[in-house]
Design goal:
Radius of gyration: 19 Å
Shape: globular
Strand content: 15-25%
Number of strands: 9
Bound molecules: iron/sulfur cluster
CATH topology: TIM Barrel
CATH architecture: Alpha-Beta Barrel
Helix content: 25-40%
Length: 279
């Protein structure tokens, strides 16, 4: 479940509507699980009930949170309701977020620390990664800054240059080597910029939008990706499979990678898939 941002005027979905959507997507053969996200999902008082509905419908449930409201009691409530994975925003972790990481790690669930790499923090990626590992995270997702949503307004300050991105990846690679923590790129970095050859401890991903990962907006509409504002239709009206069928062209156009001239003779072309559609 995705929220556009603090300026969004959409009402939150009622618990009944969320239940309808979760029942709907649980019938699709390819859907394994759901990440409850936002905005900040713990601002809702019924997040654990949503997790419980996921469980009742056979869906694995994870939560992506900034950790500020993730107290020990909340970790216990969520895990008792079926949450199996915590994704905690760790770009600029507050005391509460660091405590949340510790409690989530103690719960027995898997925990990912999500770190956005941008122009103002790339020198601290090593320290942030080490802190996440020391607090018990199982994995670190390194997300190169994407200039969309709220980030678009500040892209001139936050957009990161290639040299600085490589520096951040080197620091993360050293952390993975020292601590053994699993580190991967949540937002893909194209192989012509960096790859497993230079950073063997980091797993490099490709874009999964409109394929194995989808987003549901605050009004129940399906999207290819949380960064893509184009809506494919309502999961309160249509089944997940129907929406995929009705939007075949839109989805393939969004997923289609348009190689640049530089790509024509590139050795990595077969495996590349072109990185994030918004970079
Ligand atoms: S195919 Fe293009 S984008 Fe991909 S690694 Fe090669 S040059 Fe980079
Ligand atoms: S386009 Fe792909 S890589 Fe970019 S944010 Fe969406 S899912 Fe992630």
């Amino acid at each position: 479940m995705w929220h556009k941002g603090s300026s969004c005027t959409s009402e939150s979905l009622s618990l009944d509507s969320i239940e309808l959507i979760l029942k709907n997507i649980s019938k699709a053969t390819r859907v394994e699980g759901v990440t409850i996200t936002g905005g900040e999902p713990l601002l809702r008082k019924d997040t654990s009930e949503i997790a419980n509905i996921c469980r009742k419908n056979g869906l694995k449930a994870a939560i992506a949170t900034n950790g500020t409201l993730l107290t020990k009691a909340m970790v216990n409530e969520l895990t008792a309701s079926g949450i199996q994975h915590f994704d905690i925003g760790f770009t600029d972790p507050s005391h509460e977020t660091r405590m949340a990481m510790t409690e989530a790690a103690r719960s027995g669930c898997t925990v990912t620390a999500s770190i956005c790499i941008h122009n103002n923090n790339f020198r601290r990626i090593g320290a942030l990664s080490e802190m996440a590992a020391a607090l018990g995270a199982d994995a670190i997702a390194l997300n190169r800054f994407v200039p969309t949503g709220m980030g678009a307004k500040n892209s001139s300050h936050l957009e990161i240059g290639i040299e600085d991105l490589l520096y951040a990846l080197e620091m993360a690679n050293q952390t993975a080597l020292k601590s053994g923590i699993y580190i991967y790129t949540g937002i893909p970095v194209e192989p012509c910029i960096a790859s497993n050859r230079e950073f063997p401890e980091i797993t490099f991903s490709t874009c999964q939008c409109g394929h194995s990962k989808w987003a549901i907006g605050p009004n129940g509409n399906l999207r290819t990706c949380e960064q893509n504002e184009k809506e494919l239709g309502s999961l309160l009206e249509y089944s997940f499979s129907e929406l995929l069928e009705r939007n075949t062209t839109e989805i393939s156009n969004f997923r289609r990678w348009r190689p640049s001239e530089n790509c024509m003779f590139c050795d990595w072309r077969k495996d590349c898939n072109g990185g994030c559609r918004f970079n």
